[in-house]
Design a protein that fits this description.
177 residues; single chain; alpha+beta; 57% helix; four-stranded antiparallel sheet
Length: 177
């Protein structure tokens, strides 16, 4: 079977889209795997055509971002990397199609573009739901702050009551039997 005719399930592609720096991006390693090339070769093509990849199309992760990304997975497949990964925004992925010309790369790129379009449509269709969730989260934060303040006040009263009190009132004498 010709490798370039292998269909990749949308779920697999979608699982390789991450949210980093408030952008939906894909890792060089994941793209290379989907395109059927080595990560090293993909990055070589990018370097040869670096003018096509401004910072809003592609950027390298910093150490903290890379560590956070790796910590999301129980087993890491990035054990032997020498360089921090490059990540590609939607426009960067689209630009990759101009530097990688294999049939598989072209097919996968078309699929990725369709998935990005679906994601945008879903977000737009459910924008009101996302806004409402955001409002509820803000209200919950306010409620949490009020509850915390209330518990702080209550704990001060409990601390005061724990100190021994001097009895006030009449003392009852016990008679000797």
């Amino acid at each position: 079977m010709n490798k370039s005719n292998i269909a990749i399930p949308d779920e697999v592609v979608m699982s390789k889209i991450y949210q980093i720096r408030n952008q939906k991006v894909m890792l060089d390693e994941d793209l290379a795997e989907l395109y059927g090339v080595e990560t090293k070769r993909l990055n070589e093509q990018v370097k040869r055509n670096i003018d096509r990849f401004p910072e809003d199309f592609m950027f390298s992760l910093d150490e903290e971002e890379f560590t956070n990304l790796k910590s999301q997975f129980a087993t890491s497949s990035w054990g032997g990397r020498r360089n921090l990964p490059n990540v590609f925004t939607e426009h960067g992925v689209l630009m990759l199609s101009s530097v990688l010309n294999s049939k598989q790369a072209i097919q996968v790129n078309i699929q990725i573009m369709r998935i990005y379009t679906k994601i945008r449509e879903i977000i737009l269709a459910h924008k009101d739901v996302f806004l409402r969730i955001e409002q509820v989260e803000k209200q919950m934060i306010k409620h949490d702050e009020k509850i915390e303040l209330l518990f702080n006040y209550l704990s001060k009263f409990v601390e005061k009551e724990e100190t021994p009190r001097i009895p006030i009132g009449y003392k009852i004498k016990k008679e000797n039997s």
